[in-house]
Design brief:
The structure holds 2 protein chains of 2 kinds.
Chain A: E1 2-15, H1 19-28, E2 31-45, E3 50-54, H2 61-69, E4 76-81, H3 90-94, E5 97-101, H4 113-123, H5 128-142, H6 157-169, E6 175-179, H7 187-204, E7 207-211, H8 215-221, E8 224-229, E9 232-238, H9 239-246, E10 249-256, E11 273-275, E12 285-291, H10 297-307, E13 310-316, H11 320-341
Parallel strand pairs in A: 3-7, 3-8, 5-6, 6-7
Antiparallel strand pairs in A: 1-2, 1-4, 8-9, 10-12, 10-13, 11-12
Chain B: H1 2-17, H2 19-43, E1 49-50, E2 53-54, H3 55-69, H4 76-84, H5 88-92, H6 98-128, H7 137-163, H8 172-185, H9 197-204, H10 213-220, H11 225-260
Helix pairs in contact in B: 1-6, 2-3, 2-6, 3-10, 4-7, 7-10, 7-11
The chains are: A alpha/beta, B mainly alpha.
Chain lengths: 342, 262
């Protein structure tokens, strides 16, 4: 359904020296810097698959999705969605896809939800009978009945998201791109939305590409995940595989009594554990990552207690979250080193 | 085609819903009409005609021009917003042409404005202020055609300016300037024959007079015969060239979005 081969996207970014002098200089002589947002990505997604597409902010997720929807032209490489090259036949591609962007609304702001759907019926040229049947089904599953008469701008975030989701699936698209569909929602709404996505996939065989930072979404909806970091695919496979591959990974967060600026790993465990990049928000926090095979959690804690006064600690278990955190962490480290070199 | 008709219909519905806005707008137009009427009454108190125009001719011109001006802007504001907040990307993911969609919505707006605002108010003006009908039925017909052209020229020009939002950070200043230039050069405030000769010559080569001045001058008999037909010809020229320019600029802008990411 989705075939991507050696896909690349480079942006040209105008670079200028700081300050007024730089601003004036840039008027006459502009320096450009090429940023490779996506580097030689390959993926093959079959019809009916539900794939989680994850990566840290700025890893290249949105750029890829934009190329798949046809609103961005690749620098090089090949994209085909449902046999169509999206950026060449944008409108033709548009009638087969649906999308939800958690941060933007696609419904029409001023008119009631029902009118929005009526309009979508005409936009996507949905036959009347099919439209009625689909809408009835969606209203049942997502509990939209009380919302249909309300203008979109008066809906709460959770209500709006349910309506958005129905809008994205209304024309029974073959592929649906969901970009953070559960951002900022409460647990009950999240559960309902996940159930709806799974139901659509089961009933209509809709192919779903989901990006999210909520690992619960991924674990419940997707069979397969693709992890992207710094523009390249670093993992593509089933969730089961990644769990068994990294399943022995553990992360323990230590809250130290003193600021952790001068923290040095105790020598006895320095061979088998790794300090994850620290956040600026909490100067007392130190996170250690290690493999269960090499050292037990108890031993790490014991060593730490001996060397530092620990106020509190949390053990992250081997959920997909931990694994991803670890992978992102490495990516960030790379970035830091990168900057130092410059 | 059907989807664009639906957009126009929905837009009419949206507008019909804002009744407080409608009454405020109607009230402000009424006030403007009164101010215009008494101003020109005072101007004419010591003379019978200005540049060959008697009071009736003048007030007819000014009022009709005022109504027409309300229709010569378009949905540029909306387009500029869409570009600015990045929603244009989502619009590009839909199976329709954004410009056509916006024009359809604009048409819906204009129909509602005409039916609820301009039509009843101009009837009111016709009864209570000394507004005259076109001198002949031919000039009346020609006026309708010419006004139609003028509205398209205004709509296209407005969209053209809005597309510049792809390149400039802030469009507000440009749009304010556009409004000022249009009020001045289009003849929406006073007939262009009141301006000096050189000014009239310049505006002859600009698209603005084709928006308001030409149709209203045909209505009031300022432009007749060959002059009127020539003016119509220039209107057709502007409609076609602005339309072509709009399409070209739009496809360049879309390329910019799809290649540089906005």
């Amino acid at each position: 359904m989705i075939v991507v081969k050696n896909l690349e996207k480079h942006y040209k970014i105008a670079k200028r020296d700081p300050g007024l002098r730089g601003a004036i200089k840039s008027l006459f002589h502009r320096k450009f810097e090429t940023k490779k947002a996506v580097k030689k990505i390959n993926m093959h997604i079959k019809a009916g698959e539900m794939v989680g597409y994850i990566g840290a902010n700025g890893a290249g997720k949105s750029t890829t999705i934009k190329m798949l929807t046809g609103i961005l032209t690749p620098t090089s490489g090949e994209v085909k969605v449902n046999g169509i090259i999206p950026y060449e036949n944008r409108q033709q591609n548009a009638s087969h896809i649906g999308a939800v962007f958690g941060q933007r609304t696609q419904l029409f702001w001023d008119i009631p939800v029902r009118e929005s759907y009526e309009l979508l019926k005409h936009i996507y040229e949905i036959p009347q009978a099919q439209y009625e049947e689909t809408l009835k089904e969606f209203v049942d599953v997502l509990h939209l009945e009380p919302l249909l008469g309300i203008p979109v701008r008066q809906l709460s975030l959770g209500q709006k998201m349910r309506c958005e989701l129905a809008a994205a699936f209304l024309h029974r698209p073959k592929v649906v791109y969901l970009d953070e569909p559960t951002i900022g929602l409460d647990v009950a709404v999240k559960v309902r939305i996940r159930a709806f996505i799974k139901q659509m996939n089961a009933r209509y065989g809709t192919t779903v590409l989901l990006t999210t930072h909520d690992m619960q979404d991924i674990e419940e909806i997707c069979q397969r995940i693709i992890i992207i970091d710094d523009g390249s695919v670093i993992y593509d496979g089933s969730i089961q595989d990644i769990k068994s591959q990294f399943g022995d990974k553990r992360v323990i967060h230590f809250e130290l009594e003193d600021a952790a600026d001068s923290f040095v790993l105790p020598e006895t465990i320095s061979e088998v554990t790794e300090v994850l990049p620290r956040s600026d928000e909490d100067p007392h926090l130190v996170s250690l990552s290690f493999s269960n095979k090499n050292i037990s959690g108890a031993e790490v804690i014991h060593t730490m207690m001996n060397h530092y006064s620990v106020a509190d600690l949390t053990i992250a278990d081997a959920k997909i979250e931990t694994i991803v955190e670890e992978i992102y962490g490495r990516g960030m480290k790379k970035e830091v080193q990168h900057e130092e070199i410059h | 085609m059907r989807k664009y008709i639906e957009f126009a219909r929905v837009q009419m519905q949206v507008h019909a819903a804002y009744s407080a806005w409608f009454w405020a707008n109607t009230f402000s137009i009424l006030l403007r009409m009164l101010v215009i009427y008494f101003f020109w009454k005072a101007v004419y108190s010591s003379r019978t005609e200005i540049e060959g125009l008697p009071f009736e001719g003048m007030i007819t011109y000014i009022i009709i021009a005022m109504f027409l001006q309300m229709f010569v802007s378009g949905v540029g504001q909306e387009l500029a917003h869409t570009i600015k907040d990045g929603n244009v990307a989502i619009e590009l993911m839909r199976p329709y042409n954004l410009i056509t969609r916006l024009v359809a919505m604009d048409l819906g707006d204009k129909v509602i404005h005409f039916v609820r605002g301009a039509l009843p108010l101009s009837i009111l003006a016709f009864i209570f202020m000394d507004i005259t009908l076109p001198s002949t039925w031919q000039s009346g017909l020609l006026f309708l055609f010419s006004a139609f052209m003028g509205i398209w020229i205004g709509t296209f020009f407005d969209l053209l300016i809005a597309i510049l939002a792809f390149w400039t950070i802030n469009l507000w200043g440009l749009q304010v300037m556009k409004e000022a230039v249009i009020s001045f050069f289009s003849g929406a405030l006073v007939p262009l024959i009141l301006f000096p000769e050189w000014f009239q010559t310049i505006s002859l080569f600009l698209p603005f007079q084709a928006m308001v001045y030409v149709p209203v001058a045909i209505y009031t008999g300022i432009l007749t015969g060959t002059e009127a037909w020539l003016a119509l010809g220039s209107q057709i020229f502007w409609v076609v060239s602005l339309f072509v320019l709009l399409r070209i600029l739009w496809s360049i802008a879309i390329k910019k979005v799809t290649i540089f990411g906005g």
